[in-house]
Design a protein that fits this description.
Strand content: under 5%
Distance between the termini: 67 Å
Shape: elongated
Number of domains: 3
Structural class: mainly alpha
Order of helices and strands: HHHHHH
Helix content: 40-55%
Length: 179
């Protein structure tokens, strides 16, 4: 009897863990990105979570994703969920960016508040004769020099294998092809 009880508890624990992991894929929780809290799983509030409560939670999560109610999740429904999540992450990122850079507190970023490259420093790297301007010859020489460093004139980026460093993103249209 003890072994039977242990197996039942183990199965219930594994089921709850699997369901909590599966909930990541569905809307709900905190924006659909975190597993449900104990309180959310304990639907009747009795301090314990039963298999019935977990099944009901899974069914409600599925129903929330199955927006047309036909009993299956379509590619369109999954796409809509992913777009909603991406929009939420983007909105949070924009909010953080404004909080960090908005110096006058007006809730918007002016050109002065936006970081930009130091143009005089960039000009100095290319202006080989120091006349304060870039000639066509200087431009071509800088372009060739960047090409020799790898990355087809682009800085940084991801090289082969997904790491940073040599390789860059490549030129427009090559989509990472190496040759």
């Amino acid at each position: 009897m003890k072994n039977s009880l242990k197996l039942t508890l183990l199965a219930a624990t594994l089921g709850a863990t699997a369901l909590a992991g599966a909930v990541y894929a569905f809307p709900g929780g905190k924006g659909g990105m975190t597993p449900p809290s104990f309180e959310e799983m304990d639907a009747n509030g009795d301090g314990v979570v039963t298999a019935d409560e977990l099944e009901a939670l899974g069914a409600s999560q599925f129903a929330a994703l199955d927006t047309d109610g036909n009993g299956v999740i379509s590619a369109e429904e999954l796409t809509a969920m992913m777009q909603e999540r991406a929009a939420g992450r983007m909105a949070k990122g924009v909010e953080r960016m404004i909080e960090k850079m908005d110096q006058d507190g007006d809730g918007a970023l002016s050109a002065d508040e936006m970081p930009g490259p130091d143009m005089s420093k960039m000009l100095g790297h290319v202006d080989s004769d120091g006349d304060g301007a870039i000639s066509a010859d200087e431009f071509e020489a800088a372009k060739e020099q960047r090409g020799e460093r790898g990355g087809n004139g682009k800085r940084g980026g991801h090289g082969e294998g997904g790491g940073h460093g040599e390789g860059g993103h490549g030129s427009k249209g090559d989509h990472g092809a190496r040759g």
